[in-house]
TrEMBL record, chains A, B, C, D:
NCBIfam families: argC
Record key words, sorted: Amino-acid biosynthesis, Arginine biosynthesis, Cytoplasm, NADP, Oxidoreductase
UniProt EC number: 1.2.1.38
Function: Catalyzes the NADPH-dependent reduction of N-acetyl-5-glutamyl phosphate to yield N-acetyl-L-glutamate 5-semialdehyde.
Predominant location: cytoplasm
Catalytic activity from the UniProt record: N-acetyl-L-glutamate 5-semialdehyde + phosphate + NADP(+) = N-acetyl-L-glutamyl 5-phosphate + NADPH + H(+)
Protein name, entry field: N-acetyl-gamma-glutamyl-phosphate reductase
């Protein structure tokens, strides 16, 4: 299968290239950038002797001639423009931005503070939470956000089974600095970020409506969540602790069983043993989502400790998982490299 | 005033020395170690040309002869032995360990998994949450734990005024590696801790009963809290996000007012502006406790973002604040150095 | 080809497993540890769903029955014992320790401060600097040290062509903390290593005689070098700046040409463009050795900036490169994964 | 003594404020910024409850009325303009930029690639290497660069005594990211700098002529040095390894004696014991310059390991030391705080 990547020089684009380099059934036929026109290994010298491909301007016509699917690894607000000719021609698109995720009119404008794409276009997209997709044949996939992926997979078993007090969900997310992308900012200046931790976008993060939208598919009465996002001084990874109150008594063993059963056959979800919690590093560089479960039996509060790589399961990894599901490849193809440790 | 420090070579002991070096009314007459017998600047070459004092063995008699107060900066389990002769002689003690904090029989054994000190001895100690001490003249002070200090100051205004749903408190604490002390461990090995984050002692941390004990002084019906502790790859500091549900409607402005009023005249508590949250680095090296307050008006959940230096307000800084209160010195004496930035 | 790994749970052992997981012609039939007996993915949870193999005790007989080659990823001093039965049976060994590198009697004892292996045994080993091996069929390979690899590849073109003042070589090496292995120490305690840099083993590092031994193969009159080793707060990688004085005038263009010519056809050596120097991160997770060359035309001093991954080209990567050369596989097999970035 | 600080919000300006806060004989009467007009504790919330001063525009007349000396903590190229009215009025100036350091016409233009100040103005400035100043009464002081300070103090005893081969000096400097200031750049983006190390300005760093200028005061025949600058992932500090060849035999003990004698009575120079080398952290936050000395007796090459805080002895600390010398205060006044550790 021949694919193209638009936005190849961003962190998610580079991660798509990294995973696809190991994919047996996919060939990257072209990579595209809005700004760069060199060979990719001149922009990124670490690729020398590994991969050389020219960065090309974005020309939808040419891409559709040569390729069978396009990844859009672009910032929110830009994807919605670039996607149009592909969608109009029914050409398969996996979009990594937030532009096509919110399936209720007006939500995008409110949370992203930008004009939305034409709403019927948005409706054509399938929300690509890979473990929960229904119609794998749909050619337009809105790949989920990083925090959203972690939050949704964390709570899925509880919400699908109506086990939670609907008012009780609190999500405390921490992200490495690559989550903020390549753009320079005061918060990502080394002297500011090193040895520091800070909260940002308290209760205003654009992944909140995306999470609630998915939660409501499982628990339609759910209205709101408490969602905190913060920066930790690591390059990659999301470390999420999340809380919810059970609406009746259950043992920790029953809970872990429920999670194992729910994710049985899902190769990228790894439920930790009772008493064990994942560390951030154990998933960096991978498409895994590792979930540890705790229960405070005095309060009936469940604590979920969930880790994903924001550029893996939180972006490029899940995008390739979605490609595999769409194209009928094995779900794990290209995604089972052993990561670098330590 | 002449003071001695036992356990001077640990991180808290060194921090006592650092602050007292700037104190106008206190002289360190002796420092003591269980293991070292050199000059302090041979153990710590960074002190050369700044401070030279011999490390002496622990001899309570001699200390009581030369000194007027002793700091115990020792691990829990050891303090309780070393403290005995001082207490028996009514010699003032400020203890930085957990050995004299829990004022209910049996609690220490349960949470510390060690034999407790003789209970009447424990009862002689005053819990030294500096902003909430009642009888400043008591000569035996149990200096609070680092997480406990942050948690108690965070919730004090809400609990004192019975504003919270008593079941709703969730505390998500993150600590730098110095919180684990100088002892080597796998979790504090650089290659493991760098670029990593991990949860430890989920719902079993020994500061839990200490927090609940203090919370009950304000809200006697409170039974339990949810308390998560984790390690972030920084050397110093506690970054705490904490959650609770208001039991009636209140605006964010009212909340911030409440916090400002509560801590009016408290020099080390800095309430952030509406919409602002503290960063970890802004308190490293200081005795400040900075609190940012958020309110999710849809859910009535308050989010508290609180930062302290685990070795400052969380240990040595507060110990000196307690000394100042006990001795009648200005509360801030020795504690208002400008910290290093960036 | 079937291989076994002894010392699989150390950092180099784990890195062998990582690379071989991607190798088309090699199967790991067994992994062995002196201390662990679990499945490897129980020791290292990050391997769950990726690799499960039992850790077995070290039994040379059984290994020789099932396998065709053994990697020894053991500390210096232990390898020399474990290697004996394999060598005696002419069973192929690639040893990653320092035990079989020094081909002059007495050197090992002096620099490692331990008893050496039986000297004829040492003589049976070929020094495995992959780009400079002569007889690829030799079955006993002493894989070079990490600093040594970087130093030797840096100076090879200059020394092979007798271009340097023999007294002028100064090597200033910096290593990430993984170079010190999994063993706990004060220097690798996070609170000590973070935000710090320190020198260790000044002019006494055990790689010095190994470097001189190889340098003398190119420049027999060379007697000594200046060699500084230091720790930088990164997990992986060696960053080496090295200096030597040219013995006659040459332009920077000529020098770069010389390096390009020398390493023509060597897939893992990447000579940087004029004016460009490699960054450490560009080789982390790879088997590359990237070299940047500067020339101070006023002093005729050449500056070489060389980076390798201490666990890649400095250990496991080069070991697999040596396996490929020995077995007649393509030199790059298993070694051309795109690394994680950023 | 009343002083003003221009450029107060930069890293060096903030460090001046930090040190002067502890100075018994100096009062900061005004602080000035080109861009900010708030209170300093609104720009830097970490200063709340510690220091509140309004940031004022730069008005030389008003400063000269209220103040007795001005610090210029401005970027090179801007200082030279701002300094003019003060110099013209013989008002004391301590300038932390590079604008007034190079006392040979044409050098500044070449190395800074900018127009120089009027040369007679430059000649009015005294180079402020505090341990080597001759006429302390001169009112215009060009405070040395950070790398320059470390390099000059490292080699002073050897050059003053003509002990070195003049062609042999190699300086390998590493700097923390604060050396690059508050300005955002790709190299100081957290995701790039973290876990990385890189070389910059190889043999073109603007401190080179400054170093040579000072070296020639001790050793007039010296022509050139080899000077490498690199970035290490720490916030603060310069770690320098430097090399030179002795021109006759000397023991390490003799060398250490020479250093101790040379710096006898210099409170901020700490010569390490034989076999000991300083770590970076031991000087962070201080005005110390710690020097460790090694000798390779085979090659007669001396290795100097020197650490300073780039914002302390490398900028603001030395500026205050120069103020103390100029004003006749004790040399160490305000500079002997115990730094934060760990």
């Amino acid at each position: 299968m021949k694919v193209s990547i638009i936005g190849a020089t961003g962190y998610s684009g580079m991660e798509l290239i990294r995973y696809l380099h190991n994919h047996s059934f996919v060939e990257i036929v072209s990579i595209h950038s809005q700004t760069e026109t060199q060979e990719i290994d001149q922009v990124y010298p670490y690729l020398k002797h590994l991969l050389s491909l020219p960065l090309e301007p974005i020309d939808a016509e040419k891409i559709m001639e040569r390729s069978e699917l396009v990844f859009l690894a672009l910032p929110s607000g830009i994807s919605k423009e670039v996607a149009v000719p592909f969608v109009k021609n029914s050409f398969p698109v996996i979009d990594l931005s937030g532009d096509f995720r919110l399936q209720e009119e007006g939500l995008y404008e409110k949370w992203y503070d930008k004009d939305a794409s034409h709403f019927p276009l948005i409706q054509g997209f399938d929300y690509g939470l890979a473990e929960y997709r229904e119609d794998l044949s749909r050619p337009f996939i809105a790949n989920p956000g990083c925090y959203a992926t972690a939050a949704e997979l964390s709570f899925a078993p509880l919400l699908q089974n109506q086990l939670l007090d609907k008012q009780s969900i609190i999500i405390d997310g921490k992200s490495g600095l690559s989550g903020a992308g390549k753009g320079l900012s005061q918060a990502s200046h080394f002297t500011e970020a090193n040895d520091n931790m800070s909260v940002y976008k308290m209760n205003t993060h654009q992944h909140i409506p995306e999470i609630i939208q998915q939660f409501r598919r499982w628990e339609p009465d759910l209205d709101s969540i408490q969602f905190t996002t913060s920066l930790i001084p690591v390059t990659r990874g999301i470390f999420m602790t999340a809380y919810g109150r059970l609406n009746d008594d259950r043992s920790i063993e029953q809970l872990i069983d429920l999670y194992r059963t729910t994710f049985d056959g899902k190769p990228f979800i790894r439920i930790q043993e009772n008493g064990c919690y994942p560390t951030l590093k154990q998933i960096v560089g991978t498409n895994f989502c590792d979930i540890g479960i705790g229960l405070n039996e005095e309060t009936n509060i469940v604590t979920l400790v969930t880790v994903i790589d924001n550029l893996g399961k939180g972006a490029a990894g899940q995008a390739i998982q979605n490609l595999n599901l769409f194209a009928g490849f094995p779900e794990t193809e290209g995604l089972l490299q052993i990561p670098i440790y330590p």
